[in-house]
Write a structure and sequence with these properties.
Helices cover 34% and strands 13% of the residues. It is an alpha+beta fold. It is an enzyme of class 1 (oxidoreductase).
């Protein structure tokens, strides 16, 4: 076994030990195919008020501009599919936000993996990325063979569907590279047909400004009237396109205790949410992704849904 092959296998074994579903590796280079797609998406203003998407265009497409001398992008996915979901007929929260904020959970695992790499291999430099830097996570994961981009623009795998987080280590280490898998969406349009706001404007293209997740999380102003009667009780995020995807029949419950929801989050009725106080909000959503929308933002979302 060559050193490159040994390093690659060691990294993948350690990733599995740390609880990642899978690990794939691709060469750190300019994302040629994604560049015109990203440019077109931005030119059509599909980012809405998410102006940060317009920043660092070059860095988004070229990891060597993020990590000097980088040679490999190690992509990892971590399951968050819950064993229990909220009660029926309530205001809904996207499943990814049930537990502790994934940024904290994954960052710690990535630090451990990077520590393992430097301990086992030596002088390796790299950076960990969890959805908070200009990195096209899904593109890198697809390039590394971890799945294909579904028509809802989420990464899909035959074995476990799409309910997982994606993260990367970009390192200055030569490794063996994986190859992309084929697309298995076929003629299915379940996600396109089910999207309550027609945000999937064509297969593989989502207009972010029409997405319920955008309206309930990213948008800081009032929710536009165009969303009226089409929010389907989602007060934070939206899982519709994933819930209807046939590949998510294969989703299995995660094994990460930090992703478990507090019982009171799962049991609250619409009336409970409508009467939530700031104190209760802080208690339920301590270290939660829902803190992003803040108490006032969640109240705004609930008020909008009440009018529906």
């Amino acid at each position: 076994m060559t050193p490159k092959s040994y390093y690659t296998q060691s990294i993948k074994s350690e990733a599995k030990r740390l609880g990642f579903l899978s690990c794939g590796i691709s060469k750190a280079q300019f994302l040629e195919a994604e560049a015109p797609r990203l440019e077109k998406w931005l030119n059509q203003n599909m980012q809405g008020e998410m102006s940060y998407m317009e920043n660092h265009f070059d860095k988004r497409l070229d990891p060597t501009k993020l990590v000097e001398g980088s040679k490999s992008v190690i992509s990892l996915i971590l399951n968050y599919f819950p064993s229990e979901t909220q009660v029926e007929d309530t205001y809904k929260i996207s499943k990814y936000a049930y537990g502790t904020d994934y940024h904290f959970v994954i960052k710690d695992k990535l630090k451990e993996l990077l520590y393992f790499i430097t301990s086992e291999i030596g002088d390796v430099h790299g950076r960990a990325f969890v959805d908070s830097a200009p990195v096209l996570d899904k593109a890198w994961a697809a390039k590394a063979g971890l799945g294909w981009m579904g028509k809802h623009s989420n990464l899909l795998t035959k074995q476990v569907g799409s309910f997982y987080f994606i993260a990367e280590l970009i390192v200055d280490l030569d490794l063996e590279y994986d190859t992309p898998v084929t697309d298995h969406c076929g003629a299915c349009t379940a996600c396109i047909d089910a999207c309550p706001t027609q945000a999937i404007v064509q297969p593989y293209v989502v207009d972010g400004s029409k997405c319920i997740s955008y309206a309930t999380i990213e948008l800081k102003e009032q929710i536009p009237s165009s969303f009226a009667n089409s929010m389907e009780d989602w007060m934070f995020g939206c899982d519709v396109c994933q819930d209807v995807c046939p590949w998510n029949r294969f989703s299995k419950s995660h094994r990460e205790p930090l992703f478990n929801a507090k019982p009171e989050l799962l049991s609250k009725s619409k009336k409970d949410w409508e009467e939530i106080t700031e104190e209760v909000f802080r208690e339920i959503f301590r270290k939660s992704p829902v803190k992003r929308t803040k108490f006032e933002g969640l109240k705004r979302n609930i008020q909008f849904l009440k009018k529906d």
